Amino acid sequence: MDQYYLKELTVPIPEDRLAVIRKGKSVEYETDRIYSPETKNTRVVRRVIGKVDPVNPGRMFPNEMYFQLFPENEVPEEVRDEFLRGCEIKRQMQEIRRSPEEIIEGVVNGLSELGAGGWNVGDGSLVPHSCNCEKPSPCSEKSLSYVLLRRLFDDIYYAIEELASKYPNEVIAPFKVKQINEVLEEIRKNVDDKGILSYLRLIEEPEETGEDGKGVLKGLTYSDILLMLKWYKVLPR
Q: Of 91, 107, 163, 193, which is least surrounded by CB within 10 A?
């Protein structure tokens, strides 16, 4: 199974005897000891929990296993949750062999289905029409809207990140741009700090030009779009 590491923050390397550093890079942690009656030997089971920060050797970049073994840690909850969600999306791509393009389509289609199925999306609030409970306050409506939009955005972000790693210089298809912009437009509506809106740009649709009798797309590449989306990624949750 591929290892995914949290790149934004580091954590202290466990100082107890159960932690082992391999080749100065990989941090492993003992999780079990299995005794074999046949060989009369004990096999030590270790799992990788992180990789050493080259700038600060006493700290490491944690992976998913670290958060399982050390649920109490110094990583903010929202950072941890976003990281684990990203790992889940990347693993989903590999395990069921769905392309990142399909992830994007599914996310935006889900947003459309919510709108058709009794949720008000276009005005920035998400309230079920058939809800029997009391109507939420405008503040809680906006909060619910923003939480859902950020989850949708996370799916798109990690799909684009995957595409940018494989096809950094490939121009994105026009209909993908329209789908992604639907989510970005909704996020922009929920941003209170108007000063940052100029940095939260929508993606320009590529244009098809003719070269040597063949149609060629001219526009932003997946790596370009990933840079643009980083401005959205750092917004407060």
A: 193
